Amino acid sequence: MKDPQHSVMGYQFDSKFHYRVFKTGEAWKHDYVKFVEGSSVDGIDLAISYEGKIPDQISVSFDQSDNFLKMKIMVPVYSNFYNEKTETMELGQVGFAVAEERLSKSFVEKMGRIMGMKMNLFVNDAFSVGDFPAYKTVNISDIPKFREASFGLRKQPFYFEDVQIASLN
């Protein structure tokens, strides 16, 4: 959603999304659950199918949606089921849950307080959200692309440069 005070929670079953829109501070009421066929819920595009490896452990990654970065958390879901061969109940994975949060102005403000500095977030080389909206682009051509096999702090090159950002006041 475009408004950080709102979020959507739901699940897909029989080609329909069962969902509820939440607003910060609003009390839960069961009658607010809605159903929709398709891949969009209140302006949020949702994937109808999943093409990747089904996660068997918790994973956290970053992704992009429109001109925003988002944090994506995937968690396996387990349940007991009856095994006819052994005639016992067994725990097995029955699916997975996905939670995504757009990294918005409130995220940048919180990180700024923690780190004691102001910052911008960019998607590719374009401004997404931050404290310096006049700083519209960033040159990322000198930054090497991430390669999992070569990743490690000791292997990373250091870049020493002075960066000056003009005051917006």
Q: Low-confidence stretches at least 5 residues in length (pLDDT < 50)? A: none
Taking strands numbered 1, 2, ... along the chain, how are they ordered across the largest sheet?
1-2-3
Shape: extended
* Mean pLDDT rating: 78
Kindly report how far apart the N and C termini lie. Answer: 31 Å
> How many individual domains?
3
Radius of gyration: 21 Å
Written account of the structure:
The protein starts with 5 loop residues before the first strand and ends in a 39-residue tail after the last strand. It is extended and about 70 Å long. The protein is 7% helix and 42% strand. It contains one helix and ten strands, in the order E-E-E-E-E-E-E-E-H-E-E. It has three domains: 1-48, no CATH class; 50-102, no CATH class; 105-155, no CATH class. The chain is mostly beta strands and 169 residues long. The protein has one helix spanning 105-115, and strands at residues 6-13, 16-23, 34-37, 40-41, 44-45, 59-65, 68-83, 88-102, 120-123, 126-130. Strands 1-2-3 form a three-stranded antiparallel sheet, with no helix packed on it. Strands 6-7-8 form a three-stranded antiparallel sheet, with no helix packed on it. A hairpin with a 2-residue loop joins strand 4 (40-41) and strand 5 (44-45).
Topology:
Layout: E1 6-13, E2 16-23, E3 34-37, E4 40-41, E5 44-45, E6 59-65, E7 68-83, E8 88-102, H1 105-115, E9 120-123, E10 126-130
Antiparallel strand pairs: 1-2, 2-3, 4-5, 6-7, 7-8, 9-10
Keywords:
169 residues, 1 helix, 42% strand, 3 domains, 3-stranded antiparallel β-sheet, mainly beta
